[in-house]
Every structure is written in structure tokens, then in C-alpha cells.
Amino acid sequence: MPADEAFGSARRVEQCMGTVFTFDVRAPGVPEAVLDDAVRLLHEIDATFSTYRADSEISRLARGELTPTECSADVREVLDRCAELTADTDGYFSAYAAGSLDPSGYVKGWAIEQASDLLVAAGSENHCVNGGGDMQCVGGAGAGRPWRMGIAHPLGVHELVATVVGCDLAIATSGIAERGAHVLDPHTATPPRGLASVTVVGARIGLVDAYATAAFAMGERARGWLEALPGHYGFGVDSDGTAWSTGQWGEPAD
Amino acid sequence: MKRVLLSVTGTVLGLVGLLSFKSHGSPLGAAGALAGPAGAGSGSVAPQPPRTTHRSNSQSSGRGNAGNHHHAVHRSATPTSTTLLGRPIQTPYGVVQVRVTVAGSHITKVSYAQLTAFDGTSQQINSYAAPILVRQTMQAQSARIDGVSGASYTSAGYEQSLQSALDKAAGLR
């Protein structure tokens, strides 16, 4: 896709990891080859971590053909982070939520973060990498303009339910809308109750995405947990449609 | 992370100004086309004076800077409408194909040519995700939303299909 010269921006859309990634690079742009590298990185991560590929490291690890120490540095890092997240979230985030090893809940956000870091290293100052509705925003959307990101209403109301405005932030939403009730409470192996969706906003999408998943799994407990979570903002919609947000947000826009 | 603002909008009216989407990187966008309120090109936008033959004054259409001057690209004459089909995009949860009507350089209508799902859950997802995105495209002009969190599968497919339709439109011009 050609760079948009009028805005000094470029956009790239790539299917990977069972979802779609969008790179939205605003001025100053980066060469197309950098976007090629970022896309390649996503596919490499997928090849390493996919539970759908029998030959991935994760699949081999799950089958016992590899030990953790025999795995690549990336796999060891992801497994370590998953273990930390399980501890940080009272067990509501788990790479074993469905029984067997599946770190996908962390890998997608981590992959977005890696791709965003690659763009930064190549000189990008303003971009958003969006992986299936979870995003890492770097800088702003333009000169002096923050990113404005809508949050889809989870209850079929055909509208956005809120807008997040800011620079240098990560946003992730977990809920019933995206893929049905796909998040399970690891403690009960059943879908959580009480929440239709929860959005977490923070600095880095790896953590933010995992926190959103954990918070959604918590159901009614999510709000209190997010209130106490330093450096992060929470926004939720309960099953009855009631919207809430944790403190510390800035002045409402508009 | 710097300052973050959250705007919770409770009414449909309150949402009108928020539901917009700038299609950066599209060929039409590059031509300065995605500027001006929804429905522009239909002649219904009142405050714009008729275009004159004086191309050198400030009222003339300026494509190069249209992104910053929304009113600069309005035309008084209604251009011929062309309807184009986007590529059908396979998502893990169904097929999305967008149909776009373009009048001159303006998108005047966006609808779905295909919106299929493999199971009931996806159908529900699609039926609620679609109107959000259609409205975003129709109101691309005010450029106030850069993306949407949630409803991802359909929205990404939508975006890809829309992009391919816009590519076709650009090829015709």
C-alpha cells in the first residue's frame, strides 16, 4: 500500500495469529522495508508460539519434546512473563487457563509491542500498531494531536461506548463482543459473570492486554482490582449495560 | 504514558461527533477526498459557495492541503456516482465484503455486499460491529476517531475490503 504523501503516513494490514494487524504510521514515516520487517517479525512470533502449529516451539514444549531450558530466549521470556502475570492477577491470567499450555493470551500483546518497538528503533515517532482491537499507540496521531480511540459497545447497541484520548498509550478490550464468551475464569473453567467488556489503558500493550484478559475473567471483581492497579486505567461495561471507569482519568473530552 | 482522557458517551446524540474515522493511507485520502462532512457531494452542504472559475483565489479547490481545509474540496456540481465492490476478506469468524459508492472524490455510501459468519456468535458480532464502522466511514471527514478497540475481526476485514474498493476507485480517476 503506498504511503500517503499528503499526511506523511502509511498503513499496512496483515493477517496473522488468527486476527488482523494494522500498522498506522504517521509522520515522520518509515521506509516500506521497515513495515516489511515488522510484518515478518509478527509471522516469526506466530511460528514460534502458535498452538495451532504442531512444529512450533510451544507445541513441542507442550508435548514434552522440549524442556523450557531448551527453548529460545523469546519463549523463555514469554513463559516467565506469563508466570509473573499469573501471580500479579491472583491467578486470573493463566497460560494454562484452558488446561494445556497456551500463552496466546500474552503473545498477541507482546507481539504488538515487539512490532511497535521495531518501528521506534527505525525512527518512527508516531504510530499505532493494532492487533485485533488491542493497540500500542506511540506519540500522537499528528502534529499536536493525540490519538482518539473508540471503544466498541459490547452489548450490540451499534455504537461506541466511550472514547480514549491520549498520547503514548496502550489500549486493550476484553469482552463478550469480540469472540463470544472466549475468556474463562481459570479458577472455575467457566465464563465469568457480570461483565460485558472491560478496557484497560496503560503504557505497554503486553501488560495491558494481559490485564484486560485477567480483569474480564474476574467478572464483578474487576473494577475493584483495576482501581488498585497502579499506572493503569480501567473502563468497563457490566452485563446490564452500566458503564463504569476507575479513577485517575483526565478531564472528559468534549 | 502521558495524559489520558476518557469520554463516556451515554446518548446517541452525544456520539455523532465521535463516530468518525480517517482513512489514512487510502488513495482517496491521498487525493484529499476524505474531507468534508458526511454526504458531501450530494449538494446538501449549505455554507459552501458555488465554485467559480477563479481557480487562483482562496475558494478554489486545493487538493494538496485538503486535509487541513475541509471545505476546500466541496463541489457545487454533483459528480457521477460509481459503485465499487471491495475484495471479500476472510476473517477467522466470517467473510466481510464492502460496497462503496463514490461520487467524484467523496464516499457517499458504504454498505455490505457480504457479511457471513460461520456460527451464531459471529453473526451477533457482525450485526453490531457493522453500523459502527459504516458510520465511521461515512463521517470520515472530521477524523476524530483513529481506531476502535473491540469488535476486531469484523472491523479489520471491513477495513481491508474498504481499502481494496478505494484502490479500485482511485484507479478509475
Task: Explain what the structure shows.
- The complex is a heterodimer of chains A (254) and B (173).
- In chain A, a hairpin with a 7-residue loop joins strand 5 (147-152) and strand 6.
- The longest helix of chain A has 18 residues, at 32-49.
- Chain A is flat, with a radius of gyration of 18 Å.
- Chain A is built from 7 helices and 10 strands.
- Helix content of chain A is 32%, strand content 25%.
- In chain A, the strands form 2 sheets. Chain A has an 8-stranded antiparallel sheet.
- The model of chain A is unreliable at 1-7 (pLDDT under 50).
- By secondary structure, chain A is of the alpha+beta class.
- The N and C termini of chain B lie far apart (43 Å).
- In chain B, strands 2, 3, 4 and 5 form a 4-stranded antiparallel sheet that branches.
- Residues 8-76 and 117-143 of chain B have low confidence and may be disordered.
- Chain B has helices spanning 12-15, 27-30, 120-138, 152-172; strands at 4-8, 81-85, 89-91, 94-103, 106-117, 147-149.
- In chain B, a hairpin with a 2-residue loop joins strand 3 and strand 4.
- Chain B has 4 helices and 6 strands, in the order E-H-H-E-E-E-E-H-E-H.
- Helices cover 28% and strands 22% of the residues of chain B.
- Chain B has 173 residues and is of the alpha+beta class.
- At the A-B interface, strand 1, strand 2, strand 5, strand 6 and strand 7 of A face strand 1, helix 2, helix 3, strand 6 and helix 4 of B.
- Strand 5 of chain A pairs parallel with strand 6 (147-149) of chain B, so a sheet runs across the interface.
